[in-house]
Automatic annotation (TrEMBL):
GO terms for molecular function: RNA binding. PROSITE patterns: PPR (PS51375). GO terms for biological process: RNA modification. Keywords: Repeat. This is Pentacotripeptide-repeat region of PRORP domain-containing protein. Transmembrane segments: none annotated. PPR repeats lie at residues 111-145, 210-244, 286-320, 356-390. It comes from Glycine max (Soybean).
Length: 605
């Protein structure tokens, strides 16, 4: 750098020489270097030059030294739109939206970059309504939105009407819908909202598409319950000679699982082995490579492998990404002890991820699954920016651990204070809470208004919640009436909840009818025969009871033995329910009885 400095100290230093000095500072990622070069500019009077001032302004902003950047900005004699935009971005990046707003108001000319910076800055700070208001104001001034403007707006979408409005604005603004990034964003949003037909409409007009395009479409079909359609899109993807990635394989595994198609599932299982083989051949590791492999292990429930690779990643001084930490936390909540999750949690502030919504959501999910609801609530309450995933995660966790009233309070807060429309998962959590708390009237009211009020068409999971809720309340006729109105094919699982309640509330005719429904759908199960045998026995119909008992014996069905897992230090122990006595079962049952008694007194049961 020193020969360049000597040249710059000459009477007439060239702009190219000065630019090379600044490029060197950027390549070295050295703030000290920038300050040295800037000091020479001040000495030579070059600090007033617009081009050089903008370069220094950009570098100071990049290094997070906004005060130095503002001094450079003041020194520039003729500030152009680039000068204002760089300074505006720097203020927003440093978390000073108030000062950025004042600068935005003072700008002599606001181009699309200026508006995009402000909209993006408001969105990143959690001021979603302000971001949307600014977009409306932008259009009123005659500034034409760019593709980046709409990509920002799509990250704020929370409802079907909102998504359609933004899509319509894109068309009216003349934005190129052939843009792959914009097209993928639209497909992804429509998929999240369950608007599969709109997702297809987008991909049909796209002239170019990549793996992400097909992944988004496959996921949209799968999440909406159209599993066969999801497989068709995978075959179309392969026909377009695009290779699937780990996300493709993960979604396809879920699709095959829902279709109960083992053969098709096996075709995609091999992909992980291929990924591991390819990973081992890599001479150099980087963050994206390790991130992809850790997430693959996590998706295939190989938590120990994911953790080991994460440790190796840290030892190689590869900085973890937010997505890597999130993937690792998801594997912890399934197979690894909670102590491992605590250790990963302790890394989050050190890595600067405490304000990242994805990581925070994963932490809430992990603690909720382990039953540490207090910790999950604390993280949720401390989150500065809460998206719908955040609300869904905490509400589902609270519901599963019996905190029904708190779940309902959060649901009302989401609707009234946050103004975010619920999706399928939100309403599943709420209906589960109504089911567990036997809030029949409130549950029916929410279920009946789902499509009209929130734009969410009831799915199988919503019907299952309501049917089980009505069955437990002894309203078997109403439960059966709801099943008969289901638009999708009913499974044996949804009839099981009614059959269980029939043994308590139902008359024999209902029990026989429901039992036949399950027999037709699941011929090997012994449950309907056992329930019928009990019903016949209670009514003194001994011949019918014996016939049902023999039917069970003839099927040769084996008793299902449940398994429990417990993590102690760095090991996970598994034991069957019939092995409990070997582990000091009497003492365990005494403790369990005490826990149940405490839960009852606290109102959780």
């Amino acid at each position: 750098m020193y020969p360049l400095l000597k040249q710059a100290q000459g009477p007439y230093p060239s702009l190219s020489c000065c630019s090379l000095l600044l490029n060197h500072c950027l390549s070295q990622k050295s703030l000290n270097c920038v300050k040295i070069v800037h000091a020479h500019f001040l000495k030579l009077g070059l600090n007033t030059y617009t081009y050089l001032g903008n370069r220094c302004l950009d570098l100071y902003s990049e290094f997070g030294h906004i005060n130095d950047a503002l001094k450079v900005f003041d020194d520039i004699s003729h500030k152009n739109s680039t000068s204002w935009n760089i300074c505006l971005k720097g203020l927003l990046k440093s978390g000073q939206p108030g000062k950025a707003c004042h600068m935005f108001d003072a700008m002599p000319v606001r181009d699309v970059v200026s508006w995009n910076s402000m909209i993006s800055g408001y969105a990143s700070c959690g001021y979603l309504s302000h971001a949307l208001e600014l977009f409306v104001e932008m259009q009123g001034t005659g500034v034409r939105p760019s593709g980046f403007t709409f990509s920002i707006l799509m990250s704020l979408v929370s409802s079907s009407p909102h998504a359609k409005q933004i899509h319509c604005r894109m068309i009216r603004s003349g934005v190129d819908l052939d843009n792959v990034v914009l097209g993928n964003s639209l497909i992804n949003i429509y998929g999240k909202l369950g608007l599969v037909e709109y997702a297809f409409g987008v991909i049909m007009i796209m002239k170019q598409f990549d793996v992400i395009s097909w992944n988004s479409l496959i996921w949209a079909c799968h999440s909406a319950g159209h599993h066969e359609l999801a497989l068709e899109q995978f075959y179309r993807m392969r026909g377009a000679e695009l290779l699937p990635d780990q996300f493709t394989c993960s979604v396809l595994m879920s699709v095959c699982s829902n279709l109960r198609d083992l053969d098709k599932g096996k075709q995609h299982c091999i992909q992980l082995e291929d990924s591991v083989r390819l990973f081992k051949k890599q001479d150099q590791w980087d963050s994206p490579l390790c991130n992809s492999m850790i997430s693959s292990f996590a998706r295939h429930d190989l938590g120990e492998n994911a953790l080991q690779l994460f440790v190796l990643t840290l030892r190689k001084n590869i900085r973890p990404t937010e997505y890597m930490v999130s993937s690792l936390l998801s594997s912890v909540s399934i197979f690894l002890p909670v102590e491992v999750g605590n250790q990963i949690h302790s890394l989050v502030p050190k890595l600067g991820f405490e304000s990242d919504a994805v990581v925070a959501n994963s932490l809430v999910d992990m603690y909720a699954k382990f039953g540490f609801i207090g910790d999950a609530l604390n993280i949720f309450n401390e989150m500065k920016i809460k998206d719908l995933v955040s609300w869904n995660t905490i509400m589902m966790g609270l519901t599963y651990y019996g905190r029904v009233s708190l779940t309902m309070d959060l649901f009302r807060e989401l609707l009234t204070r946050e103004g975010i429309l619920p999706d399928r998962i939100t309403l599943t959590a709420v209906l589960l809470a109504c089911n567990y708390g036997l809030l029949v009237d409130e549950g029916i009211k929410i279920f009946s208004s789902m499509e009209m009020e929130f734009g969410v068409k009831p799915g199988e999971e919503h019907y299952a919640c309501v049917v089980e809720m009505l069955s437990k309340a002894g309203k078997l006729k109403e439960a059966i009436d709801i099943i008969e109105t289901m638009p999708c094919r009913t499974t044996s699982d949804i009839w099981r909840s009614i059959l269980s309640a029939c043994a308590i509330y139902g008359d024999l005719q209902i029990i026989e009818g429901v039992a036949k429904k399950i027999m037709d759908r699941e011929s090997q199960t012994s449950l309907p025969y056992l329930v019928l045998a009990q019903a016949y026995q209670m009514r003194g119909r001994w011949d019918s009871m014996v016939r049902m008992r023999k039917a069970v014996e003839n099927r040769g069905t084996k008793e299902f033995i449940g398994h429990s897992w417990i993590g102690i230090r760095n090991n996970v122990y598994t034991f069957a329910s019939n092995q409990l006595q070997h582990y000091g079962g009497k003492d365990l049952y005494l403790v369990l009885n005490l826990l149940v008694w405490e839960m009852e007194t606290e109102g959780y049961v």
